[in-house]
Amino acid sequence: MTTTEMIRDMLGRQKIHDIEVFKKHNITSISREQLESALFDELGELMHAQKADWCWWKFTQESVDEAKVFEEYVDVLHFALMFEINFGHGCYLNDDIGWNYRRIKSSSELGLAYVYSRVLGTIKDSDVLAYVIALGLHLGYSFGEIYNEYIRKNEINKERLAKGY
To answer: How far apart are CA 74 and CA 9, in angstroms?
Structure first.
């Protein structure tokens, strides 16, 4: 499966999941502002999972749990997929991802907080999904790993929804 095919598969799975969430919560849509807030919140959780890398003032800070970081990254990806479904313009092909990856690499010297804040900055350009995928590559995950972790977490989210999460 190509990268584009995997992205389209994730978009399809996310759309199906979103329909179920909307039904369960008796809603028909979400606003752009709600989705931006969800992205912001999940980025905060991702950054918090990496706190040991930037928290210099606390001796009792637990070390970074890489599995938790990956799971939090995939939570961001879920909302980036949702953003693409609702407000995107198909800016997630290899060239889009590559361009965003180069942008992250050049701005990473400004720090992790800046790189994460750029996700919300990309909302105006509607290339959130390409940026979030590039962020995952920057964090050291292969696209295959990102895809497989998304599938795993999507199944967990289905179970949670069925149980009233």
So the answer is: 15
- Residue 143 is predicted with a pLDDT of 93
**In the numeric block, which tokens belong to residue 35?**
């989705």
| Model confidence pLDDT, tens digit, residues 48-75 | 999 888 888 888 888 999 999 999 999 9
Q: Which of 28, 146, 15 is nearest to 85 (CA)?
A: 15
Q: Is residue 125 pLDDT above 70, yes or no?
A: no
Q: For the chain, give the DSSP string.
A: --HHHHHHHHHHHHHHHHHHHHHHTT-S---HHHHHHHHHHHHHHHHHHTGGGT--S-TTPPPP-HHHHHHHHHHHHHHHHHHHHHH--S--SHHHHHHHHHHHHHHGGG-HHHHHHHHHHGGGGT-HHHHHHHHHHHTT--HHHHHHHHHHHHHHHHHHHHTT-
> Which token pair is 41?
């919140």
Give mean pLDDT, residues 12-27: 94
CA 50 to chain centre: 15
Read off the pTM: 0.88
